[in-house]
Amino acid sequence: MKHKIKQLFLVNNKVKEPTFAETFTASANQVGISTTQLSSLDCGYYYSRKKHECILCYKGKKLSLDRTAWFIRRWAPSEDATALLALFLELHHVPFTDAKANTAHEIRTSKLSQTFQLAAGDCASPSTWVVPIKSFSDFKDKIIRDLAFPIVVKGRGGLGQRVWKCDSETALVKQVTVLKNEMGDDLLIFQEFIRNEGDIRVVVFQNKIIAAISRSSTTGFLNNVSQGGIAAGTTITNEEKALAKRAAKAVNLELAGVDIVRSTSGPLIFEVNKAPDISSFDEAAGFNIAEKILTQYIDSLR
Fold this sequence. Notes:
302 residues, five-stranded antiparallel beta sheet, 28% strand
């Protein structure tokens, strides 16, 4: 065998097909492979900015990926959680079944998976936990320990919407409780708060820097122009240009709005937007951004 398997994980089978799971486990045991059944809705993912490493946890406990293989079944209501698990395994070169089907999902361009794709692409970002809402209680203590308050909570959505800053454990639990009632089995992002005086939106198209715009808030912690932030044209360093290009490549986007923050430890990626707001930045940039993108696209076709 090219990959000597010591541990086999059977994902999302226990409830729907218990007989299959029992037979599968017995067969694996006969050839000396131990098995563990788990649900993707009990898996959480952590990226450490300081260590620049990613870990996978099950019910709050770290799992080793060494010499493991994963037999994955993707069923509702765990489709998103399963797609994230499959993508995480792919990024860490761990074998799993039906790779094309299990990773052919919008999770690739979702904020839920970006941190881990960015880490694989050598792009630093704030420390982050991604956890299914239903399993928040299993991960709460680790989230608080690893991120410290204030903690930024993100749900699905763009333009700076569905983002909250929680300054205490009470506020965090209250916010998650509200979201649990709204979102059911969805996943949430918990992120380290990086103090800043603004961020930079870098528009990248086909590995070229199209524009760089600084954004700063006048009303709160969100710098988004759609949330009242102020935009202005700016220049960025060669390091920041290279980082923006790597970020777009890491999440496999030709057109990307890469949000960079200048921190005390160097530039970090806040987020990569797959459908970045373009026209509202024309005045700040001093030129028509869409026109420049179109020119670049036409040139690439010649």
